[in-house]
Specification:
Radius of gyration: 20 Å
Number of domains: 1
Number of strands: 0
Mean pLDDT: 86
Low-confidence stretches: 198-209
CATH architecture: Up-down Bundle
CATH class: Mainly Alpha
Number of helices: 18
Shape: globular
Structural class: mainly alpha
Strand content: under 5%
Helix content: over 70%
């Protein structure tokens, strides 16, 4: 069955979920592009931005485990929608604030929302998908739509300040528009996505009679420990570059804001295609071989980007690296969640966010520190080293879990 035929037969709930992701991508794309520039225009240094990002990822980790248990108790959709609303509120507060200390509450609220969202998003989507094949395809489509419209949002972020220059900085109205887009996602998903609160329907009494410690002990096992520690390394790899990529491009190339927005828009289009080809790559090469190829490409490209080169060469390699890294992250998120049993996914969703957030906080702090000292390409060298460490971890600990799960699927067929 071709890709379009597979999409056609996806459940209606998955299609709604994927379609509304467009507005989430636009909102996050706009904010992701303008927020650092907004901070810099308000005389906040890159090191202070790094500290602010670290606080955000720390807060996200702190709330991730409770978010998993909240999803089991109150239902995934309710927690999911609450998270989106809090993200929009945080964005709104970024637009209103004018000092570093005003941005800390905005960052905390936003990342509580992000914690609730990422701790429930994949599980909720997979509950609508129904089969493992539909799970992989639906996740690929979700991320593809997000990245495509995030690129569109990035392009909008480069142009809106030229037309709506009014406010504390010329980026303020862009931030307000991004908040509006996020609130729109919450309204549409709240109205059109059904509640899939299976855990509450099946075991509400059991959940209510257990405290947090008992629930923690019930769900924690060696597989979840191995996978969440793996995602700790992924969080560090992600946060060394991604939160600062607009600043890194600007400092490394010396280009103006509009040119940077074009690069990041092209980046969004590349991420779209990288997300789309993930199911095809896994079908053609298999899970393990796919990991080997993607690891090799990502480590090599990140290492190359550390060295001084012409701006145009830097941008081209940056785009190649970004596409391959997105493909890699999609594989990690999809395959690790698929490897976990349905009744443990809410707990795993919270635990993985917790560990990934700690890794992200460390990565953001390191990146802000080195960029502040004028070393705008050093984050890529750090990325290549952490990726190499994660590959060794994958080879000896994660790969056996994936192989075991693949054998189970083959036996079931």
């Amino acid at each position: 069955m071709g890709l379009f035929d597979q999409i056609k037969f996806l459940p209606r709930e998955v299609k709604i979920f994927v379609a509304t992701e467009a507005f989430l991508g636009i909102g996050m794309g706009i904010l992701g592009f303008v927020l650092n520039f907004h901070f810099l225009a308000l005389n906040i240094s890159p090191e202070e931005i790094g500290a602010l990002n670290s606080i955000g990822t720390f807060v996200m980790g702190l709330f991730s485990l409770p978010a998993g248990f909240m999803a089991r108790h109150f239902g995934r959709k309710r927690v999911f929608i609450t998270g989106i609303v809090l993200i929009g509120l945080g964005y709104l507060m970024f637009g209103i604030g004018t000092t570093l200390y005003a941005f800390y509450p905005a960052q905390i609220i936003q990342f509580i929302g992000v914690s609730l969202l990422v701790s429930t998003e994949i599980q909720l989507l997979f509950s609508y998908a129904g089969t493992s094949e539909a799970e992989t395809l639906s996740y690929s489509l979700l991320f593809a739509v997000f990245t495509l419209f995030s690129g569109i949002g990035t392009l909008m972020g480069g142009f809106i300040p030229q037309f709506l220059k009014y406010g504390t900085t010329k980026y303020q109205w862009s931030i307000y528009i991004s908040a509006l887009s996020i609130f729109l996602v919450a309204i549409l998903r709240g109205l059109f996505l059904p509640c899939r609160n299976n855990n509450k329907l099946n075991s509400a009494e059991k959940i209510e009679t257990k405290n947090l410690t008992e629930n923690f002990k019930e769900h924690l096992n060696s597989k979840i420990i191995i996978l969440t520690l793996y995602l700790f390394l992924m969080g560090m790899v992600f946060s060394v570059v991604i939160p600062f990529q607009n600043v890194i491009i600007k400092f490394t190339t010396g280009w103006h804001d509009e040119a940077v927005s074009y690069v990041l828009t092209a980046n969004g289009i590349i991420l779209f295609f990288a997300s789309i080809i993930m199911p095809w790559l896994i079908n053609e090469l298999g899970v393990i071989r796919s990991y080997y190829y993607v690891y090799a490409i990502n480590i090599g490209l990140a290492f190359i980007l550390y060295f001084k080169m012409l701006p145009i060469a830097f941008v081209l390699i940056f785009l190649l690296r970004s596409g391959s890294f997105t493909l890699f992250l999609n594989m990690v998120d999809s395959q690790t969640m698929s490897a976990v049993e349905e009744d443990k996914r809410d707990f795993f969703g919270g635990a993985r966010t917790f560990l990934r957030s700690i890794g992200g906080a460390i990565g953001s702090f390191i990146a802000g520190y080195v960029i502040q000292r004028g070393k705008s390409t050093l984050p890529f060298l750090i990325t290549s080293l952490v990726l190499l460490i994660s590959f060794v971890y994958f080879e000896f600990l994660v790969k056996p879990i994936f192989i075991k799960e693949l054998e189970k699927k083959e036996e079931g067929m």
